[in-house]
Amino acid sequence: MKIMLARTVYPIALIAISVGLNSPAPASAFAADSLPAESQPADSSVIVDQITYKQTEHNGKPRDLHIDWTRPADWQATDTRPAVVFFHGGGWVGGKPGQFEQHSEELAKRGMVCFRVEYRLLDKGNNLPPATCVEDASDAFCYVRANAERLGIDANRIGAGGGSAGGHLAAYLGMMDDAPVDGVSRKPDALMLFNPVYDNGPGGWGTKRVGEQYLQYSPAHNISSDDPPSIVFLGDNDRLVPVPAAERFQRLCHEAGLKSELRIYEGQPHGFFNASKSGGEYYRKTLAETIAFLQEIRWIE
């Protein structure tokens, strides 16, 4: 099912979903059609749909941006389930939301609702900062929170997760000063970060793009006491995210009074956590640690 919204972003007019709400929306509110068969998971214990969260333009052309929405088969719109919004990696210039498809399905089996965000990518041929990336990430997260009651989730238990540049986007939302839109906060309630490029200051990853504007983009330089708890996964052979940078991030979080966990995996390079790497060994290990973290903060049993 693809849900097309009349409004550009949030708040939603009214979503009426064939598997959920009984009250129909106005005919103009959305147009629905079936997802391609390959978009449906083989496991019938979860449901996947696609939502259009934003209508914008890219390279001078109109463009719809989507969220893939994964939830348990017994989901109802009246639920108040914990949720996580995932952002894919790819250096802000590549990647696809499918990176976290398996994570989403496994967490949905444990009762969570998961969202995988499509965002505009930067052109490889320039050195512009990731302004559109963080804008889309913020809009997607606010969309999910603004529509929590329609999406069957708890507006106060929405986490953000991501890998590499997607980890940057998740951490950006978590660490930057909140900027509510129409009273809707963009700050996640927990962070799950997979080798995140969250230090964009001098000497950090992404410096060529952000330059002297790094304070506007670098999560590691914007940690404060109102930020969410976090867990970070990193290989000690990562050439983009040095272990000392991750240790510094954790130390600054602790100094701010925040819960922050760091898991270091010996000999592992950047991207080690993906299901396609090492026969899925570290995907399974980091997923188990993610589940344990969510249990610690009492989001799942």
TrEMBL record:
Spans traversing the lipid bilayer: none
Domain spans labelled Dienelactone hydrolase: 228-282
Signal peptide coordinates: 1-31
InterPro entries reported for this sequence: AB_hydrolase_fold, BD-FAE-like_dom, Dienelactn_hydro, GDXG_lipolytic_enzyme
Molecular functions per Gene Ontology: triacylglycerol lipase activity
Residue ranges of every copy of the BD-FAE-like domain listed in the record: 77-178
Alphabetical keyword list: Hydrolase, Signal
Keyword flag Hydrolase: yes
Record flagged with keyword Transmembrane helix: no
Family under the similarity heading: Belongs to the 'GDXG' lipolytic enzyme family.
Protein name: Lipase/esterase
Species: Rhodopirellula sallentina SM41
Species classification: Bacteria, Pseudomonadati, Planctomycetota, Planctomycetia, Pirellulales
